[in-house]
Amino acid sequence: MPSVSVITVPLAAHRQVSPRLSLLTLDIRNEPLAFEAGQAVLLAPHGHTPRRPYSIASSPAHAAATGGLDVLIAAGDHGLPWATPGALVDVEGPVGTFRVPATAADAHVLFVAGGTGIAPIHAMLDQLIRRPPAVRPSLLYSARTSNEFAFLDDLHRWERSGQLELHLTVTRQQADWQGRRGRIGREHFEAVLHDAASTICVVCGPPALVEDASATLGALGVSADAIHRERWGTPRASR
How many beta carbons lie within 10 A of that of residue 208, not counting itself? Predict the structure, then answer.
């Protein structure tokens, strides 16, 4: 298990990836950080507290190859006046026990994400897709509108290459949206859950989504031990 430490690194980039989401890339080339996909770090401008928790959106392999550590932040989350390229950021971590299940290589894996819950799941997907033997996970991903999905370039690239079964749903009315609609519920799971008895489910998002999804998956025959959950909404509560 990697130990928790504090490093100070420059912010390499700050990109707005949707109207409500920003992607921060931290330059860790001179301060390598050992972590596992699904874990989080606590961030603050250098010398400031408290540090706030954010899931890491990049896999360890991606971070090692690029020297960048990505975190996804809600655009209105506490404001980001300090997040300018070159600014120094204190990074504490890694923290948390949310990670790719050890048995993921031996079963089908269904990932379920809502909102910024896609961040750790994006890291997990990248790790699984890179790791032999090849697996083809499924992703059921919910956002309010289609322009609020993050990492669509990666998700569609994995889908086109046959490495990912992708299912997107929007929860608000949108005339030009041709995909699934509505909050994630039983009918969504019935469409994507191929074999409940041999499926591992990894769920991350707002507490209501996580609780409802877990209950529905259980009712459809997924074992409680096969449902791995991470809730957003209370600081550090699910870390």
Answer: 12
Apex CA 15: angle with CA 131 and CA 38, to 5°?
35
Report how far residue 103's alpha carbon sits from residue 68's, in angstroms, rounded to the nearest whole number.
Answer: 28
Per the CB < 8 A criterion, the answer to whether 228 and 100 are in contact is no
Return d(Cα 68, Cα 28) in angstroms, integer: 6
The tens digit of pLDDT for each residue in 150-196 reads 999 999 999 999 999 999 999 887 878 788 888 999 999 999 998 99
Residue type at position 18:
S
Structure tokens at 221: 């025959």
Q: Which residues of 159-190 are buried (b: 16+ CB within 10 A; e: fewer)?
A: eeeebbbbbbbbeeeeeeeeebeeebeeebbe
Task: Give the Cβ contact number of residue 153 at 10 Å.
Answer: 9
